[in-house]
Design brief:
The complex is a heterodimer of chains A (290) and B (601). Helix content of chain A is 59%, strand content 13%. Chain A is an alpha+beta fold and 290 residues long. Chain A has two domains: 31-37 and 57-117 and 219-289, Four Helix Bundle (Hemerythrin (Met), subunit A), CATH 1.20.120; 120-214, no CATH class. In chain A, strands 1, 2, 3, 4, 5 and 6 form a six-stranded antiparallel β-sheet that branches. In chain A, a hairpin with a 4-residue loop joins strand 1 and strand 2. Chain B has one domain (30-262, 273-559): Cytochrome C Oxidase, Chain A (Up-down Bundle). A two-stranded antiparallel sheet of chain B has the order 1-2. In chain B, helix 7 packs antiparallel against helix 8 (222-254) and helix 12 (386-403) runs parallel beside helix 16 (457-483). Classes of the chains: A alpha+beta (290), B mainly alpha (601). At the A-B interface, helix 1 and helix 6 of A face helix 7, helix 8 and helix 9 of B.
Chain lengths: 290, 601
């Protein structure tokens, strides 16, 4: 028994089965991500003033990753076009670049994630807030704290933390918190109006902390939707890379026995890959820039 | 009539070199649409029974709050532990059963039976295709469904029990309720959604691509049209629920606040969360699926009923084309009515007004469908079989369900009726005596094609009449209860809200009818025994069919061998006419199969 139109297009629809299938699947994916984008809008519009964590993303890294994905979208088309002109080795090279781009994207993304997991916001009981990093002493070795939260302070009975603030300007004059040493105070004053990126190390008593959270999903609705959407997108990148790798490593046999069907497979895989790219094109501005 | 483009299908219908696949590949990990259809059907019937049992336990608790459940009480105490101590159902267990009754009936029973089982079995046959477009995806779809079912059932046996917060799982309640039941529910739902996504893609591609030569869109049997639109609803409406499910899972496991508002208190203490989320967001995303889901439940049943009525009245369906157009309009509109479930959430009067308007508009195509079927009956030469009776009973039952929905669609009257027993009665009229009667009709009708034997008529009639009577005895009084103010989801049947001296509450009549409804529910369960006996007995001992087309039908599934072999058709098939050419003047018999060539050719 053979299913008709697995390779040849049906005359009245002009499509072979898998091409229609992938378009329908992508329609469903549009609804999936569309619901996430709608949730993003609703959460952002509904956020209380000042609670939308804004401007905490690393824009140059995000831009780099955007270009990586766009490049991979180009090479996946070139891979398909190479097969159309019966050039298998060009196809193979383009596919290798595509998959390298995918993996590169994921590696960069994982470093970006790790960076967030040791970056903190602390809400003080007096109402002030600041962002920065926490270092702790582990048997004489200074270490970055990952994934700490208010619960960690209670559980580990930590009385005070050493907090490296991102930006001295976070303390407006007259609202210094907590009491700083003379040197720290001068440091802050010195750089107070020279822009960000000047760190100030302060010691904060746990008793003065209302809430402490790393930039993890639980930090705020912004990071919740950021991590959920980018992780889901990352899963799509990974899934696409696995499928494309399968075409790369196991494709030769089908290329020799049924080249038309193999070209169709690359086309269908490429369509999915473009979609994954397109989702990122939307994710990048709403998460990093807007 | 436009001529069909000539399409060259390489039918591999010659099955001489038919390789033997062995037991596992033939019956368990099969890619044959008919086997997968039957697998879905068996699973769905088991869950239909399971859902019925959960309902019986709840009905006992409503009628006799705090009394131990007879027969099954001790077993339940053993399985569920403290929440069913001494066989008495606790409110927690009642909530669990309520949530799981809804979930199981909707996602594990009725949709798999109507859409997946009958769709898989019948659609490729009716369009003249050798199988579904993607047989292996079809198998993956079934096994994703299977895993989802296993997770749902397993959640009953974890220490905290299954999900408790209704099939709608509203946040923040669903998120903050302690225990893992909700987590299992969400993970189970993600598998079920994956399954229905794969199924929906497969159905649409199959219907668009694999129609046999000559099967133009307006020669497509109405059942295929219904499945086609249903597949689109599943394809596009389910993903937002997946989104919502992922977000609720994040709330549950990683402490995010997608659906948890600022200033939330849990158990009297401020919750340790960031806040800033929106409970309304869950409801929007849920009902964006939830409303199209209602049509996913009903459309396959309408499709079956249409096939069966056309076959039983021996004349063409009146207004086939207008039914198709109504169906398409219905499918489109079903995406923009969802917030009529949310009038009481305070989303604003302007939005309520919009959704009230679309809700009223969507009743038009529904009425067109029902009216066409009613008018079709006029002047029919009826052949009364059990499937005819179920199909006929579907019409008024679905009509009652639909018409009683109008007061709920108006936001003014919905304020009174919202979340009352009136709502329960309304949607059960649509789904229980509506859709499930349609499904029973389908089972009696297609049983001979699947097994080569007919089900017993006498037992079928006992099953039908008792079911019809008891269904109405259950759900009709609920309208009155709801209008008397009885709220749904009360584990004691409203006893604590009864009128007392000087206190206005539920009337004595409203509470008393709990008992009679429960008796009717137990009777309904007993009325299914003839069906169960019939179903198994007929497999071995039922009357053998003497032809491949025992009901003298026109559609293609009856032009195959019985049961159809792998690859379905033993000869290349071409279609020459519409689906319902019954009693054509001048024709020797009163039906003309779709693949019978015109005489002049």
């Amino acid at each position: 028994m053979d299913i008709p139109f697995t390779t040849k297009a049906r005359p009245d629809t002009g499509l072979y089965n898998a091409k229609l299938g992938i378009w329908l699947f992508l329609a469903s994916e549009v609804m999936l991500f569309g619901a996430f984008f709608s949730a993003y809008i609703l959460l952002r519009v509904g956020a209380d003033p000042g609670t939308w964590a804004h401007g905490l993303m690393n824009v140059p890294i995000g831009t780099f990753n955007t270009f990586v994905l766009i490049a991979s979208s180009v090479t996946v088309v070139m891979a398909w076009a190479a097969l159309k002109s019966r050039n298998y080795s060009l196809y193979r090279n383009c596919m290798i670049i595509t998959i390298m781009c995918a993996l590169g994207f994921l590696v960069v993304k994982s470093f970006e994630y790790a960076e967030k997991f040791r970056h903190y916001e602390v809400w003080m009981k007096d109402g002030s807030r600041m962002t920065g990093h926490i270092d702790y002493d582990d048997g004489g070795v200074k270490k970055h704290a990952y994934f700490w939260s208010t619960k960690t302070l209670i559980k580990k009975k930590i009385e005070s933390i050493s907090f490296t603030s991102d930006d001295a300007n976070q303390w407006a004059p007259g609202q210094y918190y907590p009491p700083m040493t003379k040197e720290q105070l001068e440091h802050v004053k010195k750089y107070a109006d020279k822009g960000p990126q000047h760190h100030a190390v302060v010691t904060i008593k746990s008793a003065d902390i209302q809430r402490l959270s790393a930039f993890v999903p639980a930090h705020s609705t912004f990071f919740a939707i950021y991590f959920t959407m980018t992780a889901l997108h990352g899963v799509h990148v990974l899934g696409g890379a696995i499928v494309l790798s399968y075409f790369l490593f196991r494709g030769r046999k089908m290329w020799q026995t049924d080249p038309d069907r193999f070209i169709n497979r690359i086309e269908v895989g490429g369509l999915f890959w473009h979609f994954v790219d397109l989702v990122w094109i939307f994710l990048f501005p709403i998460m990093y820039i807007l | 009539m436009q001529t069909a483009p000539h399409i060259d299908i390489q039918h591999g219908a010659h099955e001489q070199g038919h390789e033997d696949l062995g037991f596992w590949r033939t019956y368990i990990f099969s890619t044959d649409h008919k086997v997968i259809g039957i697998q879905y059907g068996v699973m769905a019937l088991v869950f239909l029974f399971f859902g019925l049992m959960l309902m019986l336990a709840m009905r006992w608790q409503i009628a006799k709050p705090g009394e131990p459940i007879p027969f099954f009480g001790p077993t339940m105490a053993q399985i569920f532990g403290d929440v069913a101590a001494k066989g008495i159902m606790s409110p927690d267990l009642y909530n669990t059963f309520g949530a799981m009754h809804g979930t199981i009936m909707v996602f594990l029973a009725v949709v798999p039976l109507g859409f997946a089982a009958f769709g898989n079995y019948v659609v490729p046959l009716q369009i003249g295709a050798p199988d579904m477009a993607f047989p292996r995806v079809n198998m993956a779809s079934f096994w994703a469904f299977f895993v989802g079912c296993v997770i749902m059932v397993a959640s009953f046996f974890i220490p905290s029990g299954a999900a408790q917060f209704g099939w709608t799982s509203y946040s923040p309640g669903a998120t903050t309720t302690p225990g893992d039941g909700q987590t299992y529910w969400l993970i189970g739902m993600i598998f079920l959604i994956t399954s229905s996504l794969l199924g929906a893609v497969n159905f649409i591609v199959t219907i668009i691509q694999l129609r046999a030569p000559g099967m133009t869109w307006f020669r497509l049997p109405f059942f295929c049209w219904a499945q086609f639109v249903t597949a689109f609803l599943l394809l596009l409406a389910f993903p937002p629920l997946e989104t919502a499910g992922v977000m609720q899972l994040m709330d549950k496991l990683l402490g995010t606040s997608f659906f948890l508002p600022t200033g939330l208190f849990v158990g009297g203490n401020p919750a340790d969360i960031s806040g800033g989320g929106s409970p309304l967001l869950w409801q929007h995303l849920f009902w964006f699926l939830g409303h199209p889901e209602v049509y996913v439940l009903i459309l396959p049943a309408i499709g079956m009923v249409t096939e069966i009525i056309a076959n039983s009245i021996r004349k063409p369906i009146w207004g086939y084309k207008s039914m198709v157009y109504a169906l398409l309009v219905l499918g489109f509109l079903s995406f923009i009515v969802w917030a009529h479930h949310m009038y009481l959430t305070g989303m604003g009067t302007k939005i309520s007004t919009f959704f009230q308007a679309t809700t009223m508009i969507i009743s038009i195509p529904s009425v067109i469908l029902l009216t066409c079927l009613f008018i079709s009956l006029w002047g029919g030469a009826m052949r009364f079989r059990t499937h005819t009776l179920f199909a006929l009973a579907f019409l008024p039952m679905f009509g009652i369900g639909g018409l009683t929905g109008l007061p709920l669609g108006f936001n003014y009257s919905d304020i009174l009726l919202h979340d009352s027993y009136y709502v329960i009665a309304h949607f059960h009229y649509v789904v229980a005596p509506g859709t499930i009667f349609g499904l029973f009709a389908g089972i009696y009708y297609w049983y001979p094609k699947m097994t080569g034997r007919k089900m017993n008529e006498a037992l079928g009639r006992v099953h039908f009449w008792l079911s019809l009577v008891f269904m109405n005895l259950i759900f009709m009084p609920m309208f009155a209860q709801g209008m008397a103010g009885m709220s749904r989801r009360m584990s004691n049947g409203g006893a604590s809200y009864a009128s007392d001296d000087g206190v206005i509450g539920l009337t004595v009549e409203a509470i008393k009818s709990n008992t009679s409804i429960s008796h009717a529910a137990f009777a309904l369960a007993l009325a299914q025994i003839p069906f169960i006996i019939n179903f198994f007995w007929a497999m071995q001992k039922g009357e053998k069919v003497t032809s491949d087309n025992p009901w003298d039908s026109t559609t293609l599934e009856w032009q195959t061998p019985t049961p159809p072999p792998h690859g379905n058709f033993d000869k290349p098939i071409e279609i020459f006419r519409g689906p319902y050419e019954y009693s054509v003047p001048g024709h020797p018999v009163d039906f003309v199969p779709q693949n019978e060539p015109d005489k002049k050719n």
